[in-house]
Amino acid sequence: MVHLWRTMDTTVRGRGNGYKSIATIAVIAGVYVSIVSVLRFGRFLAGFNCTTPPPDNDLSVSRIHLRIIMNWTLASCYLYLPWIIGNVIERIGDLCGFPDCYFKFTKIVLLTSILNGVIDFWQEVPEICLWNMNINYVENIHFYLHCSMWIISFMIMLTIDITEITGLKPIFYYHLTNDNFCSLKSQQFDRFLSNMGFPGSSCLLIILWSQKFMSFDRLLLAVIWTLGILSCNKTDDKDIKYVVRQFEKKKAWMYYSERISVSPLK
């Protein structure tokens, strides 16, 4: 009987380790897909594939209108996807009994993957443009500005906690300790992330509006996503006070850690 119990316990542990191995491989694949999708989206926003309007425009007005409607649908529907995908993942995960530590990461991977569909189905409208700055030094400024905005946005996420924003920290704790990190997470921090919307949103707004060739489709994307980003930002005084307290704690921790590391040298 004891031998049978030990055999069953070993089998259950082996299956649990097998599930965790599969989940680890899936997480690594999801991180790769997200990075590639974000890089491709950054190239899309930089306008490297934009075409200048042809000299002889023989397209009908109805086709231009169809392309504008297509772009408006893509840009508008993507703003509702975080809410829709989040609810679907939570319901399917609860129904199947999956740990909720995977929900946020799965949501991020799906949202970044869908960006590839937005890029592929996006219809350029070069026949209508606000400005076209096809100058060498302007192109260099445009390139460095976009790169710097992406770097600043990445640094903002690092400062806040990129593992928490991407949903990797709960998965890491779950695989390391077999405990649900979501139940131990600070409610104030979770509230701050949900109210903030997109971290580095100001950088994204600059990227959307700093185009060397502002065609009508890019203008439509910039207007719709600017309104969406501004409406998603719901930070209030409580969130600001929470961030100030966290910075004070980090400054105090850095001060005492420096004193501890330097004091033995005296």
Question: Can you tell me about this structure?
Answer:
Keywords: Membrane, Transmembrane, Transmembrane helix. The chain crosses the membrane at residues 21-44, 64-89, 141-160. Belongs to the nurim family. There is one protein chain. This protein is an all-alpha fold and 266 residues long. The protein has one domain. 77% of the residues lie in helices and 3% in strands. It contains eleven helices and two strands, in the order H-H-H-E-H-H-H-H-H-H-E-H-H. It has helices at 2-46, 61-96, 103-121, 136-160, 162-165, 168-177, 181-184, 187-196, 201-209, 216-232, 237-262, and strands at 129-132, 213-215. The protein has a two-stranded antiparallel sheet with strand order 1-2. Helix 4 (136-160) runs antiparallel to helix 9.
In total, how many domains does the architecture comprise?
1
Give the overall shape.
globular
Q: Gyration radius, to the nearest Å?
A: 24 Å
Q: Uncertain runs with pLDDT below 50, 5 residues or more?
A: 1-15, 262-266
Q: Could you give the order of the helices and strands?
A: HHHEHHHHHHEHH
Helix content: over 70%
Give the helix tally.
Answer: 11
Major beta-sheet overview: 2 strands, antiparallel
Mean pLDDT: 78
Strand content: under 5%
Output the structural class: mainly alpha
Taking the alpha carbons of the first and last residues, their distance comes to 64 Å
Assembly of the depicted chains: single chain
Q: What is the count of β-strands?
A: 2
| Sheet with most strands: strand arrangement | 1-2
